[in-house]
Amino acid sequence: MKKGVVIVGAGPAGLAIAACLNVLSIPNIHLEKEDCYAHLWKKKAYDRLSLHLAKEFCALPHMPHADSTPTYIPKNQFVEYLDEYVVRFNVNPIFNVSVECAMYDECSKSWSVKTRNLATGEENEYKAQFLVVATGENAQGIIPDIPGLKSFDGDVIHSSRYSNSGMEIAYDLTNFGAKTSISIRSPFHVMTKGFIRLGMTLVQYLPLKLVDKILIALNCIYYGNLSRYGILRPEIGPLALKALKGRSAVIDVGTVNKIKSGEIQVVKEPVMVNGNQVTFKDGETHHFDGIVFATGYRSTAKNWLKDDKGWLLNEDGLPREKFPNHWKGKNGLYCVGLSKRGLFGIAKDAEITAQDIAKTLSTERLNG
Ligand SMILES: Cc1cc2nc3c(=O)[nH]c(=O)nc-3n(C[C@H](O)[C@H](O)[C@H](O)COP(=O)(O)OP(=O)(O)OC[C@H]3O[C@@H](n4cnc5c(N)ncnc54)[C@H](O)[C@@H]3O)c2cc1C
Ligand SMILES: *[C@@H]1O[C@H](CO)[C@@H](O)[C@H](O)[C@H]1NC(C)=O
Ligand SMILES: *[C@@H]1O[C@H](CO)[C@@H](O)[C@H](O)[C@H]1NC(C)=O
Known about the structure:
Keywords: FAD, Flavoprotein, Monooxygenase, Oxidoreductase
Strand content: 15-25%
Order of helices and strands: EHEHHEEEEEEHEEHHHEHEEEEEEEH
Bound molecules: flavin-adenine dinucleotide, 2-acetamido-2-deoxy-beta-D-glucopyranose
InterPro entries: Auxin_biosynth/cation_transpt, FAD/NAD-bd_sf, Flavin_mOase-like
Cofactor: FAD
EC number: 1.-.-.-
Protein name: Flavin-containing monooxygenase
Strand order of the largest sheet: 2-1-6-18
């Protein structure tokens, strides 16, 4: 199948590119290390979770959400949408298959993708003209290296196990009666879901700077001055920060009110752990029974993608080129869903990638 495409990963990004290729009748082999597609959504996300972005920003290519679908789609309904998507576009990933290495062969002008079946240990090799990286930005949780962390007596977990933001976890913990502190290291924007939707809509018609001003004004009116609670606002506006650094605003699900009422304490950055005692940057020390790290994720694509030479991805496994030039590398290599633009970005990446592959194939056909 040398003419075809190998897709690595069957999260929403992998499903989207597979569907786009199927619509264009371009053969593809789709590999997923877990035993189901959209593993993050099916097996790891909270039941209570609903999408953070409004539904018009959360559709995959060729299948808009129904009018009757709620604006903020509940997790289970999003999973049903994906189930329907997979059936409609005949997406068929091979499961339990982890990609261990992908190398480009100059002679045969094709990618050689080596895999291992995680259930049986069986090894395999696939060859294809095109390779699409769809392994996600959230492949692995990052836990910072705090001196003494190994000595901590309680539970240490990363938020990837809950697929949820730190603000949301803190909110849930207090609702279940836990005395919760939240450690804040650097400034960030807090927004309601409604503000974010408004911002994403307005920015299609107004300059980004103006929309940022509107969002900050709304934020001031709605929340007041939060600096006395330890929540500082970055100097750059929320949309500009997202565009420049890929850093999203934090979505408030009610946590800010709990911080204002004192139900949740804000503490500084932890600098040392000793048994159950955690010491913070301002010198304060408190006792804790558990630590949840909501400290972000990293892409793991660089672990297996060997012959990219930094053309597509940087050392962090994220696109080297800024949006909108992030999706295409050399030698038929592409990435879908690595530009920190959520499902909306995934859909756009998938469409443009499939079109580009189709164009390459038809040019080759014309040239014999
Ligand atoms: C809790 C949560 C809520 C979110 N809410 C929204 C939202 O409301 N709106 C929005 O637009 N975005 C949202 N996002 C962001 C983003 O849309 C999702 O993270 C989405 O799942 C990303 O899809 P993906 O396919 O790129 O990555 P993933 O869903 O992470 O899928 C990648 C797949 O690749 C597989 N894989 C990785 N490495 C290998 C390998 N070596 N070999 C084989 N397979 C491999 C993984 O097993 C995984 O199944 C949310 C994210 C989280 C965590
Ligand atoms: C994947 O592996 C699990 C066990 O790890 C097994 O139960 C399941 O049947 C496997 N699925 C496929 C499609 O091979
Ligand atoms: C917010 O309050 C702090 C003091 O807590 C003050 O220094 C700062 O100037 C205030 N910011 C605004 C915009 O009022």
